[in-house]
Structure formats: structure tokens, C-alpha cells
Amino acid sequence: MSALVKSSLARKWVMALSGLFLVVFLTQHFVINITSVIAPDTFNEWSHFMGYNPLVQYVAQPILLGGLIVHFVMGIILELQNNKARPVKYAQFSGNSNSQWVSRNMIITGLVVLAFLGLHMYDFWAHEMQYKYISFLEEDSTRYYAETVAKFQPVWRTVIYVISFILLAMHLWHGFNSSFQSMGLKSVRKGEGIKKFCYAWSILIPAGFILIALYHHFNPLTA
Amino acid sequence: MKLTLKIWRQAGPDQKGKLVTYPLDGVDGDMSFLEMMDILNEELVNKGEEPVEFDHDCREGICGSCNMMINGQPHGPQKLTTTCQLHMRKFNDGDTITIEPWRAAAFPVIKDLIVDRTSFDRIQQAGAYVSVNTSGNTQDANAIPIEKAKADEAFHSATCIGCGACVAACKNASAMLFTSAKVSQYALLPQGEVEATQRVQNMVRQMDIEGFGNCTNTGACMVECPKGIKLENIARMNREYLKAETIG
Prior knowledge:
By secondary structure, chain A is an all-alpha fold. Chain A is built from 9 helices and no strands. Chain B has helices at 33-46, 118-125, 148-158, 165-169, 176-187, 196-209, 220-224, 232-246; strands spanning 3-9, 18-24, 69-70, 73-74, 96-100, 109-111, 114-115.
């Protein structure tokens, strides 16, 4: 068991499991967010639940943060180790002839998504902290929809969100499908089906987030 | 055919190397890549210069010795081919061809295009075998019935020639495809069951000790493998390893 913890295969497992955990979270996040387009009252209700339920706040949120940190830290460790495994680089390397750009540059798309998370946390999480624990404002289960729509009014923010979701899609395109391979769940028989499902999900969910951002940008609330 | 060759020259393991340019004329499309290298070396020897050192043996795609990174691709632009099987008709008159050795910390350069691949040997020695009594009472392999599909898959995994193209192609210099092929060729057969647990544990441990990079599933190894060893081997090794470390 101790060998497992130290092995390169364990690092793959950690990357894969933390990544899959974040995929599950992203799906749940999308399900809530899409209600802001199709049913604003439901969006308010679910957002209020997420914002005030103690289980979500004090159990789920720290676990989510932990999963994110593990995924990020392991990604950096892998990148550093992999650089060490090839100290002298090739003068000519035709990576595009044998692999996808996204698969070779997960660190780039990952860092962009991480930077986006900083903005996203500032926009919504920091705002919530201010509302609840600094300004001590009263609970209001009807405020979330209007606040979200208002956030997407500046063009710069909407553009950043759209670009970030495109980069997220690229990250997921390789990462989601890859996690099944890392965990040894792929075989000749199941491999193609898993790949198709992962590719479809990797496009549809970020595309859905883009749709939500654009919808709110082009549909401001009138006073 | 007239070519310009840019070849990595390095006098020894601890020496600094560099790409040296050589013009070469009279190359025929029917020549193999190694024959082209032979012609260059003849010219160099005739001029009193040191020939380019490169590994080669069988020249029919089975020994896995003729390792060259050609224009940024292991074994050159043709898929499912070793360098010795690559013909010069794949190139055009006037082309510039860059030739480098495999690059990996676990494959240190010995001289010019020759690298030390004994790290692969050590991975194999760690577990890629079955212990059989060879005292004269050895059981016939065919005495144990094996499902045809499994036998074929094991055979396909066993066609890995250990050339190292997988490591050379991988952006992380990972040896997962090689190690997993060697694990798979036994894991799929009943003869390999006895030592299955320690085999995968020891081979993965040795692979890590040798300093290969981590697999990030880019799939470049499979595309560049001259024998078409499949990525499913890596998934199988991941399964076998987890099983070995948890269930035993």
C-alpha cells in the first residue's frame, strides 16, 4: 500500500479522481445555473439553499475546495516531474502529428481556468461573504437572480467568462476522457463509448455556461 | 535526390552535443533511411572525418535498435515503421532532415544518435517473465486452453520490440506503453497469473526508479509505436497495479 502512494500510477489516480469529482461538481453547478435562464424563481430558491444550508456551507464547500487544491497541486507536481524526465529538449518535435494540442497543454488550459476561478470567486463567493458575514444583511431568497443578471452586464466580464469556458472545454476534452484511462476503466470494448460520452459532455456543459452568460448579458433587468 | 541533413553529434555521454549540417547527394528513393546514413558515413570516412554513430542490427523492423528522431517524429513520418523500414521515397529532393537521438533522462546519450536503453532491460528484469521449470519436464504451453481473443491480445502486446519510440514521442518521456505491454502479455495468459501481483508491482517500481515521466494520456506513444501497441495496455496495467496493491 505504501508503494501505491509513492508510485507514478497513484499520481494518475489522484489526478483522475479529483478531476472526476470536479466534473460532478460542474454538472451540479450547471443544473442550478441553467434554471436562471428557464425558471428564475427556482434559481433563487436553489441558490438560497446552497448559500444557507449548513451541510453545503460547512461540509460540501470545504470538500470542494480540497478537491480543487489537490487537483491543482498534483497537476503542478506532475508538470515539474515530467519536465525533469526530459532535461534536453528536441530541436524539432512534431507533437501535432501524434497527439492533440489540448492533451499536451493541460497545464496552460488548467492555469487559465484557475485564474478564471479567482475572478469567479471574487464575483460571487466574496460577494456572499460580504453580504452574510461582514455587512450582516438579512436573508433574502429573492435576490440571486437579479444579482447574477447584473454581474453579466459589463462586456469585459462576459467576454472573460466566455473565453474561460472555451478553455475549460478544452481542458475537459482531454481530462474527462483521460481520467477513465488513468483509472484503468477503459478497454477495447468500452473505450469508444466512454470517449464519445466524455467528448460530448466536455462540449455541452461549457457551451451551456456560455449560453447562460450571454443570455444574461443580452437580457438585462429593467427597473 | 539531394538532401541537407542536420544530425546531432555528441562525442560522449558527458560531452556537449550540437546539430551539424551535412549536404548529401545521390540518394535514391528505394534506399532505406539507414542505407542513406551508410552513404553519408562512407563519405565522412573517405574525408577522414568521424562517422555518425547510430544503433542498428536486424534492419527488418524487429530488433528495435535503429532509433532516430526524424524531423521531430520517432522513426520518421511513416506510421507502423521502424527507421530501417523507412524508405527515402518518403522524402523529397531538396528536403532538410533533422535527425536527433531519443531524448529522456532515462535514455542518456552514449554517442551521437546512440542512447543507453538498459533502463528498459531493468524494467523487464524486474518482472517480465514467467518462472517455468525447464529441467526437462516443462509442460506444453498448449496443454492449457486459452481463449483465442485473449491469446491474440497477449500476442499483440508481446510484439513490442522495446525500441523506445513511445518514450521518445511522449512529451513527458513516459515509459508506460512499454511497461504496460510487457505486463499485459503475461497478465492476459493463465501462465502469467502465478506471478501477476509482484510482476506489476516490481515493474512499475523499476519504471519509476529509472526516472521516466508520468503518463498524461496524450496517446502519442501509440501513434508512433512501430508495432501499434495499444493504449488499452496502459489501462490494463493501471487496473492490475491497483489490484496488486489493494487486494494482493
